[in-house]
Write a structure and sequence with these properties.
Elements: E1 3-8, H1 20-26, E2 30-34, E3 41-47, E4 52-54, E5 57-58, H2 59-76, E6 80-86, E7 91-96, H3 98-112, E8 136-141, H4 146-157, E9 161-166, E10 172-173, H5 181-200, E11 204-207, E12 213-216, H6 223-228
Parallel strand pairs: 3-6, 3-8, 8-9, 9-11, 10-12
Antiparallel strand pairs: 1-2, 4-5, 4-12, 6-7
């Protein structure tokens, strides 16, 4: 690898990269930087905690397609791409280059889709290699679980740039599951408050399509959301 220069130590850097002579001169930790580090680290965070349909399309199926498209696009640019499958069992693929990374990501996604039960996953269980310092994180989620929202806030505290692909937006619950006009108004207000909170965190949001109706099947939601539905 071609040596490019030095920079200040950041959380997550390998101890092996520390330039001890430069560190002793400046009285702060300095690490060596190499040409391969010019590639960006991208992590696709896929929410596997809920099962929901938007206009008859399972969100999980759409999430897998989105994850595959993001991985392919960034790998073709020469970036390193990894995966975090946030569900009953935390699954991850550390960011890496090439076709091997794409196949590992898809293998993990398909394996994770088999079991969607919810057991309070936490990003604190992830190894450091799964979320490298400075990685760009795409969160693909319907934003229904409190644990997912807490994880987004945690990602921002760690200094990651986060882009949320919102799979349901403020879509209207199906007529059969909407008890009254009041419940729908409460649901919409809660969604709008949630999206506003993401903006306050500095999280960019991209809606997936323009859905008009959302149908909840096996669903884990907060008590407030459950009351509104």
């Amino acid at each position: 690898m071609e040596f490019l220069g030095t920079r200040e130590y950041a959380a997550g850097d390998s101890v092996r990269a520390i330039n001890w002579p430069a560190s002793s001169r400046t009285r702060q930790l300095i690490v060596n930087q190499y040409a391969s580090e010019r590639s960006s680290d991208v992590v696709v965070f896929v929410d596997l905690t809920t099962e929901v349909e938007v206009e008859g399309c399972p969100v999980l199926e759409a999430s897998i397609r989105i994850a595959a498209s993001l991985a392919q696009a960034y790998l073709e640019q020469g970036d390193r791409v990894g995966l975090v499958g946030f569900g009953a069992r935390l699954r991850w693929v550390a960011p890496r280059l090439g076709a091997e990374a794409y196949h590992r990501i898809m293998d993990e996604m398909l394996a994770a889709a088999i079991n969607l039960s919810f057991v309070e996953p936490s990003l604190t269980r992830l190894p450091r290699s799964a979320l490298p310092t400075g990685a760009l994180v795409f969160v693909v989620s319907p934003l229904l679980e409190r644990a997912v929202l807490d994880s987004i806030a945690d990602l921002r505290r760690r200094g990651h740039a986060v882009i949320v692909i919102d799979m349901i937006g403020v879509a209207e619950p199906s007529q059969a599951q909407r008890a009254s006009e009041l419940s729908w108004r409460i649901w919409r207000m809660e969604r709008e408050a949630l999206l506003s909170a993401l903006t306050d965190l500095g999280v960019a949001r991209v809606p997936w399509g323009e859905p008009t109706e959302v149908s909840f099947n096996r669903l884990q939601v907060s008590s407030a959301q459950r009351r509104s539905l």
